[in-house]
Design brief:
single chain, 224 residues, mainly alpha, 9 helices, globular
Amino acid sequence: MTLLHEALLVAGKDLRIEARSRVTAQQILPFGLVVLLLFAFALDPDRGKLSTVAPGLFWVTVLLGVLLAVGRAYSIEADNGARDGLRLSGLDSSALFLGKAGAVALELTALEALLAAGVVVLFNVGLGGVAPLLLSTVAATVGLAAAGTLYGVLAAGLRVRETLLPVLLLPVVAPVLLGATRAWESAISGGTGDAWPWVALLGIFAVLFTGIGMLTFGALLEES
């Protein structure tokens, strides 16, 4: 099998588990909407402030969704020796990484689509500058999924993985939060030229962590 085929097998396995458990639909997506609603009510007297904070709030909510999605991706393999089965599957370690990261990225995409609709409706924000918005969102999603999958396997074998994962991951993905927020701010305000340097930063981060994950995931999985 090719690397892509193996990665699709792993991603399909994770997505089928999520579809059957409905954790994404029943927990992660409602969580994102609740966060937006809380801020919409809290800042409702000042509609101008709502539109100003919308990009940052959007990406902070996505970042919290990453923690939930990554934690779930590894917790489902903690019981019944499922992680040992993954190690012994004979699949390429790079494919394992790409598959798990791809599944997380698709879950984040669903969350981002829902959050974007919520931002438009609740915060009265027009999503102008479509090209930088889409490219920055794709690059940030790939970067967050890759970094989350990499640091998730680091914490997977530990009893305190639920609390250790945020400590490990949040400082690392701070550039993604900053870059994606600035890119969205520039695109929404109409200054699309200012968004492109941030899009480039997000692309570099995504490529860097995808490469690191493909090279190191196998060794980290053996130690987890």
